[in-house]
Amino acid sequence: MLNGDRFVIVGRAGMDFYPDPPGTRTEDGATWISALGGSAANTAVQIVKLGGRADIVTCVSDDAVGRYVCNRLDHYGVGRAHVRAAGGEARTSLAIVETTIEDHQSVIYRNGAADFEMNVADVEAVDWDGYDAMITAGTVFAAEPSRTAAFRALELAREAGMPTFFDIDYRPYSWPSAAEASGVLSRAGTMADVIVGNDVEFGFMAGDYEAGLDKAHCLIGAGAGVVIYKMGEKGAVTITGAGAERSGIWRVDALKPTGAGDSFMGGFVSALAQGREIAEAVARGSACAAITVTRPTCSAALPDTGELDRFMADHPGPTED
């Protein structure tokens, strides 16, 4: 499916704050730690930690927080030649996230988000022939001008002959209405070769939670080559033109729920870039997610190749609920 490990990721990079130590409630926080955040940025970091190359296309605010994000991208080795500083009142996305499982709270500040300022010129400036695959996520489609830019990026990726990966990543607070989100995300799904989402997201796209798995199967008929239907602790279903295959999860004692989806995507595409079969790629992506939820923050929690291989060797293996 992939002929190399050079990825271009169109999406969001932001700043995360965590009350410290782990387990502290936000309202009780006195000491805080910061980290690079945002789904596209986290996915890019995971790819780099696993030996691949990743460049991100996005906008950040033209201020200290935007520069913080750029510095952290540099720290992890993520390419940012296509990260533009947006002026005016645009602000980089900020997330206040707890390292907790029970009654977990995440508060996202995205009013006037800088990443929504990404435009068609930003994606048309990319040398698409210099990459092997494109990845994007649903958040970037939630507002203009980034929505039009993201659709243009999918077109350019297809014209360049590269596979496209789409993480549904539906976040209601980013959208004007559920109806608009359903239509836009469904359209994006018809333009992607590989679609990844959870049961709630597919159910949302279908307009009925119980019809989510049927929607996933329909997307294969609409043009996708692979659809991964994630079901939390119940594992996942990988759907292709040849049929559907169920897989389990790697059971761990989690500290927090966040970062799993980004880690899964990074681990999954990295495995495909290494020439692994889809089932093995799903297993490696799931293992990345399992490791990530056992450690504080998202970007810093993402495993490198050595950590991933040791985990898979030492763990009894994925199980289905």
The largest pleated sheet is described as:
9 strands, mixed
Q: Could you name the CATH homologous superfamily?
A: Ribokinase
Number of helices: 10
| H and E order | EEEHEHEEEHEHEHEHHEEEHHH
Pick out the low-confidence regions. Answer: none
Summarize, please.
The chain is of the alpha/beta class and 321 residues long.
Q: What can you tell me about this protein's structure?
A:
The protein is of the alpha/beta class and 321 residues long. It has one domain (6-314): Ribokinase (UDP-N-acetylmuramoyl-L-alanine:D-glutamate ligase, 3-Layer(aba) Sandwich). It is 35% helix and 23% strand. It is built from 10 helices and 13 strands. The protein has a 9-stranded mixed beta sheet with strand order 5-4-1-8-9-10-11-12-13, sandwiched between helices. The chain has a 4-stranded mixed beta sheet with strand order 3-2-6-7. β9, α5 (178-190) and β10 form a beta-alpha-beta unit. α6 (199-206) crosses α7 (212-221) and α8 (260-273) runs antiparallel to α9. The longest helix has 15 residues, at 278-292. The radius of gyration is 18 Å and the shape is globular. The mean pLDDT is 96.
Question: Secondary structure elements and their pairing?
Answer:
Elements: E1 6-10, E2 14-20, E3 31-37, H1 39-49, E4 53-61, H2 64-76, E5 79-86, E6 94-97, E7 106-109, H3 120-124, E8 133-137, H4 146-159, E9 164-167, H5 178-190, E10 194-198, H6 199-206, H7 212-221, E11 226-230, E12 236-240, E13 243-247, H8 260-273, H9 278-292, H10 305-314
Parallel strand pairs: 1-4, 1-8, 2-6, 4-5, 8-9, 9-10, 10-11
Antiparallel strand pairs: 2-3, 6-7, 11-12, 12-13
Helix pairs in contact: 1-8, 6-7, 8-9
